[in-house]
Amino acid sequence: MNEFLRPIGVLLWKDILIELRSRDLVVSLLVFGLVVVVVFNFALNATPELVTEVTPGILWVAFAFAGVLAMNRAFVREKEEGGLDGLLLSPISRDSIFFGKAAASFIFMLLVEAVLLPIFAGLLNFSPASFTLILTIVLATLGFSVVGTLFSAISVQTRSREILLPVLFFPVILPVLVGAVESTKQALGGDTVVGLGHWLPLLGAFDALFLVICHWIFSIVVEE
Amino acid sequence: MAGTEEIQQPTSEIAFQSKFRWSDMIRVDGRINLRGCLLLVTGILMLVNLYMIFMVAPTDAVLGHVQRIFYFHVPLAIVSFVAFLAVFIASIAYVFRRETKWDNLAHASAEIGVVFITLALVTGMIWAKPVWNAWWLWTPRLTTTLILWLIYVAYLMIRSYAPSPSKAAIYGAAMGIIGFADVVVVYFSVQWWPGIHPTPVVGPLADTGSLDGTMRSVLLFSMLTFLALLTYLIMERMALQDTVDQLRGIRFSLRRAARQDAIPGD
């Protein structure tokens, strides 16, 4: 087990260290998230009544778009200096690489969301202190980072990767996005048809499914 | 100079096939031409199918003639699902076997499937406008179909953007597997999605129960016809891919031969 976990920790620490020294990803994602909310405010010309209705949607569009940007960067760094080849040549399993990269993306996105959430709460007038909301964010972000890591590893090898990643990512992640928006709606006290606690287990199930499929496919995709 | 002998053989074969004979559709070089036979059968089925749809099937009492588009729409949709199932199975087979024929099958099925599902969406919209008075409703079935379309368009994009044919094959297989698994999840997630209000949708499966006998047999015949068309198109597309691969091989050996001619000492 240690053989499996240690490389994940090393990979994760490497990404955190790069981020601590360059600080380019988290800061730009924060600003991007804010820009999305401001753009939505003008695009929807949001009145206070409308804001409560569309808040979950704005929140998740901002998070999802920021997530795609983060995923775009995840493997670019590895690709630029031939780091991915080095990773593949090193005596660690493909699963460790996958989970290490996914864990790094997961942590960066959670960090960005943790900073953005109180700001959004202030701007859009809702209370962020909800257990359901926080659990929703954690579960949905897990799904995003798992699927995103796989497609980032694929799209980084292709031409026009910045365009290809969202095209691949969003249709596949749609169930998680639907679950996240609905669950957020419940957490914020909006009216939903579905009973309480329906979406959280579903989100967990989606995560488990994507975790199994994506880490299997990742090992096939990178072995070439 | 070494490559010259290799390339003369295929040239003569291509020249031989330039004259078309009807008998070639059934038998070529003493062997049964499976693709030609299927083309003949599909062509006859298509003609009969048109007759069935416009002459045999009764006009719908409420919807009138516009209802006849259903005999195209439903088979197109169902047959495109069959094509995507084929992509899924062929992708899994390719991952485990790594044989080019499985990849060709997946690629061909995805291309034809995208064409069919596009036609299904378009015919559906043409039908929806007079009946629902809207081109589009976000019902679970329509939403899932649209996502399906997006996933397999992404599949084709991933293949054409891949750096090499072998990468295209493996990335395609990845998308073929995760895309199909995702469709199931998408279907259930939009089913529970309260964003759309449950309207009484006249879906393919819900509808057949209320169809009269003749309408149902016409629909079944049309499905059979489109299944034959799908099979024929996939076979034709795979044969085309074989030709492309052969040509690529010929061009490769020609280039190598030319390079060897250019460098005398090599």
Q: What is the count of structural domains of chain B?
A: 1
- Range of helix content of chain A: over 70%
The top-level CATH class of chain B is Mainly Alpha
Largest sheet of chain A: none
Q: Work out the number of β strands of chain B.
A: 2
Oligomer: heterodimer
Rg of chain A, Å, rounded? 18 Å
Strand-residue proportion of chain A: under 5%
Shape of chain B: globular
Radius of gyration of chain B: 23 Å
Tally of helical segments of chain A: 8
The interface involving the most residues is between: A-B, 31 and 31 residues
Tell me the total number of β-strands of chain A. 0
Question: What is the name of the CATH topology of chain B?
Answer: Four Helix Bundle (Hemerythrin (Met), subunit A)
Order of helices and strands of chain A: HHHHHHHH
Please count the helical segments of chain B.
8
Structure description:
Chain A is mainly α and about 220 residues long. Chain A has one domain. Chain A is about 85% helix and about 0% strand. Chain A is built from eight helices and no strands. In chain A, helix 2 packs across helix 5 and helix 7 runs antiparallel to helix 8. By secondary structure, chain B is mainly α. Chain B has a single domain, classed as Four Helix Bundle (Hemerythrin (Met), subunit A) (Up-down Bundle), CATH 1.20.120. Chain B is built from eight helices and two strands. A two-stranded antiparallel sheet of chain B has the order 1-2. In chain B, a hairpin with a 2-residue loop joins strand 1 and strand 2. The longest helix of chain B has about 50 residues. The chains are: A mainly alpha (about 220), B mainly alpha (about 270). Chains A and B meet through helix 6, helix 7 and helix 8 of A and helix 5 and helix 6 of B.
